[in-house]
Design brief:
about 325 residues, globular
């Protein structure tokens, strides 16, 4: 099983595993949709957030190898995963609520990661002798607690008029060159994979929350959410991806992506569509079927890029847009 296929399958987590409580609007949707449809949608969003993040770092590696058209392809598909798939799935379950609801949602997620998830992963990594991963998990837990504090301050400013929405924290960007895993334990590797899914989802969610804040005229809140999204992607996800050995040479990254897109197009999304159709959630079934077709197109585009690498790259085609 390829790394990407394994990670996509790990995305099939329930709502409880995200550490984020449901907003009032989400709870209303959960009553209108079958629970299985809501859970499948959240699992799909988790996978789309991870794919978006991964493809951006695969694009950076392609740039390092002088593979410009492949880098453009990875970035274009990454944009589809976030701006089309994740966004439509979020709309299906009313994932984005009011600015206040979005802040409460984010605070709960950061609290879970800071107080439970990352401390547990750090302790397990220490037990398994993966001390660099333990240190990184501990560092990220502290970051997430700081994010919780900033978001709480923003919530007080928004709802009580006390203080101001704070500026976002600086981003300590981490490069992710091609390389092998830097951890020895299978448990640490699994924890890294789960953490990357969470960071990818947070990056995507905060991006949508920021866009909502822009639409409501909350510019400082939008800046905070955009800044936190950058930290989740370029610092946390990136550091975990480096430890995990997520990025390989570009041909290997293309094969990994083909496997992931093929699994989504032929197995995951068709399964979700059938389940939604059976539950009477026809709109969700139609969306899952549409996205399955898109993922098949992405797999085909990646296959063409892989074939072109053997004879020299041609300009990237537009079929993945």
């Amino acid at each position: 099983m390829s790394t990407f296929t394994r990670l996509i399958r790990c995305a099939g987590a329930t709502l409880a595993l995200t550490g984020m409580s449901m907003s009032v609007s989400q709870a209303a949707v959960a009553q209108a949709l079958a629970l299985s449809t809501v859970q499948d949608t959240r699992a799909a969003m988790r996978g789309e957030g991870f794919a978006h993040a991964s493809y951006l770092f695969f694009a950076d590696q392609a740039d390092r190898e002088g593979r410009r058209s492949t880098a453009e392809l990875f970035r274009r598909v990454a944009g589809v995963e976030l701006n089309d798939h994740f966004t439509q799935e979020a709309a299906l379950i009313n994932f984005v609520g009011s600015d206040e609801a979005n802040l409460r949602h984010a605070i709960e997620g950061e609290r879970y990661e800071a107080s439970s998830m990352y401390p547990t992963y750090a302790e397990e990594a220490r037990q398994d002798g993966d001390f660099e991963a333990a240190e990184r998990f501990t560092e990220i837990a502290a970051d997430e607690d700081e994010h919780r504090r900033l978001l709480t301050q923003a919530l007080r400013a928004l709802t009580l008029g006390k203080g101001t929405v704070p500026a976002p924290p600086p981003v300590d960007r981490v490069e992710v060159p091609a390389g092998p895993p830097q951890v020895a334990s299978a448990r640490t590797r699994a924890n890294l994979e789960d953490a990357m899914h969470g960071e990818g989802e947070a990056n995507a969610a905060y991006t949508l929350f920021a866009r909502h804040a822009e639409r409501t005229g909350q510019e400082r809140l939008a800046e905070l959410f955009h800044g936190l999204a950058d930290v989740e992607l370029h610092e946390h996800f990136a550091a975990e991806a480096r430890l995990d050995g997520l990025v390989s040479d570009t041909d290997t990254n293309l094969r990994t992506s083909i496997a992931g897109e093929t699994y989504e197009s032929e197995v995951m999304y068709p399964t979700f569509a059938r389940r939604a159709e059976k539950a009477g959630d026809t709109r969700a079934a139609a969306l899952f079927t549409e996205i399955a077709d898109d993922e098949g197109d992405h797999a085909a585009a990646f296959r063409r890029a892989l074939g072109e690498s053997r004879t020299g790259e041609a300009p990237a085609r537009n079929s993945a847009s």
